[in-house]
Amino acid sequence: MQGAADHIVLAAFVIIGILFVPLTLTASRLLAPSKPDERKLDTYECGSEPIGPPWVQFRIGYYVYALLFVVFDIETVFLYPWAVAFDHLGLFILVEMVIFIAILAAGLAYAWKEGALRWR
Amino acid sequence: MSALGISALKVLAALGLMLGNGVVMIYMLRKVLGHLHIRLGPMHVGWKGTLQTVMDVLKLLTKEDITPRAVDRWLFRIAPAVVFIPSLMAYAALPFSDTWRVTNLDSGLLYTFTALSLVPLGILMAGWASSNKWSLLGGMRAAAQQIAYEVPLLLSVLPIVMLVGSMNLGVIVEAQRGTVLAVIPRWFIMNPLFWPTFVLYSISALVETNQTPFDMSEAESELVGGFATEYSAMKFGLLFLSEFSNQFIVAALTVTLFFGGWTLPWVPEAVSNTFGPLTFMLKTYLVIAVMMWIRGTFPRVRIDQLMQLGWQRLIPISLAWIVISGVVIKVWS
């Protein structure tokens, strides 16, 4: 059962990763000094007093990109199994995939035309 | 030994490699950049400054860990872990030789990309939780550019998967073993069908790892320290370490996908298998050296140029190239 053994290793990666982070942070806490003061705990903005909180409304551009990303990332998920099986699949499936890609390309063209890809 | 013990040892080996890579690569970066600028780089600690990064790690360990008053404490603390753990996990599928690999995943390529794609989440968390305008901008830029270039990155390597018929990184390497016409290595970089693939992959990979022409998320001349501005001591160390580790992963993937992985052309299979891990590391470090050379040479691009390049050029081109290479591969066989 090669597959099962591999998944145990992957789980071990997560567990050891989760253990390693607190370990280094604790080591650092034991070794490092801790003398917090009023100025040191200020938000760093190159020495001047921060004006207003940074958690404000943010530009919409990022949101549109994120939406487009979801569409194309899911497309990629569909394309990978197709690519793996590409050798065994006939011409028909190739044509089908070309149509699938064309539909998405049309979507991209629409987003482009509507100005969603322009950084404002 | 039990299966659990063996897996734990494998993971610790990967962790050791990751930490070792970090130390070596930081020294290498400073030396390479130094010599590109016609200066010497670190020279004082140890022979030619070789112990400099070891000392830097010790220094990071003994530095005061400052958590500013305004941060979102919970997110601020776990963000370095969210960046670090996927970066460690990405080592799982790399084939260092036919026997030296942690796992033999059939979905190795997709798995590695998945692990790498979790990193921007942590960077976004770090940027937002810092409650600092520089950090927020850096985190947002990182998220925007990394999700924008993940699509062309994944799409660009599809022709290779189509030709090989597997996402198992070991199988992809095996397909590149030997030579064509007795002289040319059967590496995918030698195959004209994959030249556009290589260009698309290289650009996207540099963006994904925040390498300098595209390091908008921590552009020190614009954003101070980017998403890591408020981080200090070992939390900063972890963020920094994963960045170098990601660079190593991407270089190792480049070697695996385009430069024949652990195999050597022109020598018998047994020889090439024996020196597999050595060959692999050597090739990977050569790719890393080229990435550092790029870092020392190119000026940073603007974020709007970067986003336009990604969405308006790379994605349409990589989609078109999938169709073209699909037709070519079908006609060929």
Q: Could you give the topology of this structure?
A:
The complex is a heterodimer of chains A (120) and B (333).
Chain A: H1 2-31, H2 61-84, H3 91-113
Chain B: H1 3-36, H2 52-61, H3 73-89, H4 108-129, H5 133-156, H6 158-164, H7 169-174, E1 179-180, E2 184-185, H8 195-208, H9 220-223, H10 233-258, H11 269-274, H12 276-297, H13 303-332
Antiparallel strand pairs in B: 1-2
Helix pairs in contact in B: 1-2, 1-10, 1-12, 2-10, 3-4, 3-10, 4-5, 5-8, 5-13, 6-13, 8-10, 8-13, 10-12
Q: Got a strand count of chain B?
A: 2
Structural class of chain A: mainly alpha
Biggest β-sheet description of chain A: none
- Topology of chain B as a string of helices (H) and strands (E): HHHHHHHEEHHHHHH
What integer is the average pLDDT of chain B? 85
The largest pleated sheet of chain B is described as: 2 strands, antiparallel
* Tally of discrete structural domains of chain B: 1
Radius of gyration from the alpha-carbon trace of chain B, in angstroms: 20 Å
End-to-end separation of chain B in angstroms reads 47 Å
Largest interface: which pair? A-B, 67 and 80 residues
Give an overview of the whole structure.
- The complex is a heterodimer of chains A (120) and B (333).
- With 120 residues, chain A is mainly α.
- Chain A folds into two domains: 2-41, no CATH class; 60-114.
- Chain A has helices at 2-31, 61-84, 91-113.
- The N and C termini of chain A lie far apart (53 Å).
- Chain B has 333 residues and is mainly alpha-helical.
- Chain B has one domain (3-332).
- In chain B, strands 1-2 form a two-stranded antiparallel sheet.
- In chain B, strand 1 and strand 2 form a beta hairpin.
- In chain B, helix 4 runs antiparallel to helix 5 and helix 6 (158-164) runs parallel beside helix 13.
- Chain B is globular and about 65 Å long.
- At the A-B interface, helix 1, helix 2 and helix 3 of A face helix 1, helix 3, helix 5, helix 6 and helix 10 of B.
